[in-house]
Design goal:
The structure holds two protein chains of two kinds. By secondary structure, chain A is an all-beta fold. Chain A has no helices and nine strands. The chains are: A mainly beta, B mainly beta.
Chain lengths: 112, 116
Amino acid sequence: LAKTTQPISMDSYEGQEVNITCSHNNIATNDYITWYQQFPSQGPRFIIQGYKTKVTNEVASLFIPADRKSSTLSLPRVSLSDTAVYYCLVGDANQAGTALIFGKGTTLSVSS
Amino acid sequence: DSGVTQTPKHLITATGQRVTLRCSPRSGDLSVYWYQQSLDQGLQFLIQYYNGEERAKGNILERFSAQQFPDLHSELNLSSLELGDSALYFCASSVRPHLDRASEAFFGQGTRLTVV
């Protein structure tokens, strides 16, 4: 099970782009990288998932370098409502349970 | 709304008691996951069921047990409750027994348990 390391917290202002990097040095060949968002007193919500290179959806982009030892979640033009905890998960899609082990996450605070 | 329903939303009980938390997964989802979230421990994976069978076990105490019924709803039973069991308990569901690009997990709103 690949261990992930993320910054504990980040601060930003409205309208800025935020990049949250996650380190996963011992990622395995079959592991996917998934990011979840959690607001206070709510359940986590899936944001984006990728295996390599770049993935983009309507919410965020995920950049994964060739060695896959890290990944960066990019949130374009954040707003106050993006204040939340962001979790990076790395796991093997074929092993039950391993893809949903959450770390401490990164608390993003967006100010006006 | 994720489509995952958890009841009750809030629960206050005394130490030593037993409670049951209920989770109804999204329609069509066969896999159910239970999580405990406390301030000091973060989001801890407890157990996963798929189509009625236990699929994976995490940091679940022996005082806790779970099951998934034929209609796919799941219950988490917590017994001999201690003050430290106070936490948010989340249920999540997904279509398949494991997660891949086609099967993200959807979380419910949680049950807040307070043990006094």
